[in-house]
Inverse folding.
């Protein structure tokens, strides 16, 4: 294994020189060290084992319920105008989405023409349209949790029910009056929100 041309001196040497020679000889004669696993890889492995043992503790029905809840959340995100999410989103974009998702229910306003309201009137007059926007995560009640559970268990199948509170007007502003393009006078009630809440 070693070359026969290497010679060793039988003379004793000083401790420092022997240390230096032994370190140089060990570094020159030692085989390349086996690659060591980094602590991060060890940590990832332990996390995977924890998750796999956690999933093994679930019953088949619980795993199906978890998957159906994830599919429902994804389809709700797609139906609300969200684009297809990447498999591994960047942490920055995840934080931005979380901030956008958790804006509380509040009253907002927009200046629009009467024609833009979509009520069938032709008019260039502008009105102040107040609307409700935001999420209602904190307003989830026992009713909402139970309704969601019944939907997940397929006890409620074909009925259209909403298992979470929605940001909606609690009260409406005064009636809005305007002239249309033919000088006819109209009044529309319950057009703009006055107060918003989670219902």
């Amino acid at each position: 294994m070693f070359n026969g041309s290497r010679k060793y001196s039988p003379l004793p040497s000083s401790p420092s020189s022997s240390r230096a020679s032994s370190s140089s000889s060990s570094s020159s004669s030692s085989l390349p060290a086996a690659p060591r696993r980094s602590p991060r890889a060890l940590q990832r492995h332990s996390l995977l084992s924890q998750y796999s043992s956690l999933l093994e503790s679930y019953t088949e029905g619980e795993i199906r319920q978890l998957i159906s809840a994830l599919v429902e959340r994804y389809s709700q995100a797609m139906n609300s105008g969200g684009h297809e999410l990447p498999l591994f989103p960047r942490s920055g974009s995840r934080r931005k989405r979380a901030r956008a998702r958790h804006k509380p229910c509040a009253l907002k306003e927009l200046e629009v023409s009467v024609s833009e309201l979509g009520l069938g009137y032709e008019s260039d007059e502008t009105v102040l349209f107040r609307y409700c926007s935001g999420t209602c995560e904190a307003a989830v009640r026992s009713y909402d949790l139970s309704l969601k559970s019944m939907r997940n268990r397929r006890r409620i199948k074909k009925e259209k029910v909403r298992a979470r509170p929605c940001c909606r007007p609690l009260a409406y502003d005064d009636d809005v009056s305007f002239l249309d393009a033919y000088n006819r006078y109209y009044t529309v009630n319950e057009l703009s929100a006055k107060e918003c809440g989670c219902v």
User: Anything to note?
Assistant: The helical segments are 15-29, 39-56, 60-79, 91-101, 142-152. The two ends are 82 Å apart (CA to CA).
